[in-house]
Amino acid sequence: MRVLVVCTGNICRSPVIETVLRDRLPGLVVSSAGTQAAPDRPVHMLTATAMAEAGLGEVAHRSRPVDVAVLAGVDLVVTAERAHRAAVLSLRPDLLRRTFTLDELVSLAEAVRPQRTDGRADEALRSVLAERGRHPTTSGDLADPVDAGPEAHHRMVHDVLSAVDRLKASLLAPTGPVTRA
After folding, report:
1. Rounded Cα gap, residues 55 and 136, in angstroms
2. Do 12 and 153 contact (CB within 8 A), yes or no?
3. What proportions of the chain, in percent to the nearest 5, are helix, strand and coil?
4. What's the N-to-C CA distance of the chain in angstroms?
5. Residue 136 burial class via C-beta count within 10 angstroms: exposed 0-12, middle 13-18, buried 19 and up
6. Angle at the Cα of 156 (from 36 to 144), degrees rounded to 5?
7. Which of 82, 126, 129, 178 is the most exposed place for a label (fewest CB within 10 A)?
8. For 92-114, what is each residue's pLDDT tens digit?
9. Are 9 and 146 in contact (CB under 8 A)?
């Protein structure tokens, strides 16, 4: 499954979401772009520091703008904000059922809970996508730390880690009896 993550400049939020999705949900092919990205910029210095301190390591990332060509062949688009979702849909209205804010995707996955035990995040996500519109979801925005200090970048990285961990728990939760001591 090809996943595209979209934010504004493609130097803070989307590289973090891209990295965490790739790390936590193996088998996905994840890339990122920005609605207002200047091409070929590295991850924001404060975001890179926050990522390293969270154990995400160094990221070899270069920004790129989102356009029709970048959207070609994607199975799922995950955005940082509702405005990014709207920008993607203005380019490719046919992606409506496959474009979500991160918060919206997590909310839907928690409602559907496919709970695959075979580790197939791609198949679990396909089950979630098929349920769009059948469950109430939230759709909050992930705050942009670009013009803020280190604390905002750390908070954003924490928020992404938390959201993706919730997503993973919904998609790949083990099944079977729980033993209690």
Report:
1. 34
2. yes
3. 45, 10, 40
4. 39
5. exposed
6. 30
7. 178
8. 999 999 999 999 999 999 999 98
9. yes
